[in-house]
Amino acid sequence: MSEVFLHSFNTLGHGFIGYVIPFLFVLTIVVFFHELGHFLVARWAGVKVLTFSLGFGPELVGFNDRHGTRWRISAVPLGGYVKFLGDDTEASTPSAHALANMTEEERAGSFHHKKVGPRAAIVAAGPIANFLLAIVIFTCLFTFFGKPSTTARVDKVEANSPAAAAGFEVGDVVLSIDGSKIDSFNDMQRIVSTHPGDHLTFTVKRGDATVTLHGTPELREVKDPFGNVHRGGVLGITRQTAAGDVLTERVDPATALWLGVKETWFVIDRTLAYIGGVFTGREAADQVGGPLRIAQISGQVATIGLAPLIHLAAVLSISIGLLNLFPVPLLDGGHLLFYAVEAVRGRPLSERAQEMGFRIGLGLVLMLMVFATYNDILHFAAS
């Protein structure tokens, strides 16, 4: 086992700067906007913000603004937090002693003295900011780089594959799948890869005729251009891209915004489907990655260009937004769960119940981090 760990860290160490700088670039963007969501709504609600920190641990550099907020960059760049007046910890757990000894003026600016509605809005603003950031990034990419597309043409059918069994032929052009219009080969790949084992109906143009085919993608392990292994549905169809095959469609800002919303929803839908698949046994949990895997992917994507790296930031922003909405105490979703209970009961949970909840939440978060890091190490060992 020690050799596996040594090999893993040697793999990560190779090209360290090439991994770390893109990783910090992507993570800083995502974390900053998440915390900015909390910060802006808190200011709007009249809550005094004590600290806005990128990272955890000792402060490296910082300054105070005119409202008394300490803006800081901290030593451990794996997240961030906003600390409000009355908070005991960075997770916004209340300080009973501080709350009991506040003046009326301090109570007016205390997060925990606000009604449940403003508190819920402040907490929800972080994940919402992540989703809005993704929409803005996708919209900008579509606006300035256009929408690339390649005709969903079949250039090769793999023998004994689901595509062969379905009756696909070379030269077929897929027009729709289960009634959803297919504008490009990438559109077809997305649907096929996310529906392994599902019966799909394909409308195909064959010469001057339109035919209907039925196929079931099979679950396979496939490698991306960087050698990373992913599981997904495969039909056994190949598209050979020649010069001039890839077209870039220019879109107006309104269309770009709509495409940005659709892209954001696609990532949300697929992430939730994967999580559901893990619990039902349809998906393997070894695809769950942590900071090491994200660092590796960031470095790989950075070799392609800035636009793909920013695209990755949008995807990561959605993932962090969803993760924070899980109803786990310590995360934003856990706070929202407590506030929902408070709204129903007419009073908050007892201090002891909240403390126990945060302890359980901390344990679950630590377990997830350990599991993700373990997956990362095994991933590097196998690469």
Topology summary:
Blueprint: H1 2-13, H2 16-44, E1 49-64, E2 70-84, H3 96-100, H4 104-108, H5 116-145, E3 147-149, E4 156-157, H6 162-166, E5 173-177, E6 180-181, H7 185-193, E7 200-206, E8 209-215, E9 218-223, E10 229-234, E11 237-238, E12 247-249, H8 253-280, H9 291-302, H10 306-325, H11 332-345, H12 351-382
Antiparallel strand pairs: 1-2, 3-12, 4-11, 5-6, 5-7, 7-8, 9-10
Helix pairs in contact: 1-12, 2-5, 2-9, 2-10, 5-8, 5-10, 5-11, 8-10
Q: Could you walk me through the main structural features you see in this protein, from its secondary elements to its overall organization?
A:
With 383 residues, the chain is α+β, with helices and mostly antiparallel strands. 52% of the residues lie in helices and 19% in strands. It is built from twelve helices and twelve strands. It has a four-stranded antiparallel sheet. A two-stranded antiparallel ribbon has the order 1-2. It has a two-stranded antiparallel ribbon with strand order 3-12. Helix 1 crosses helix 12, helix 2 packs across helix 10 and helix 8 crosses helix 10. The longest helix is centred in the C-terminal third of the chain and has 32 residues. The N terminus is likely disordered.
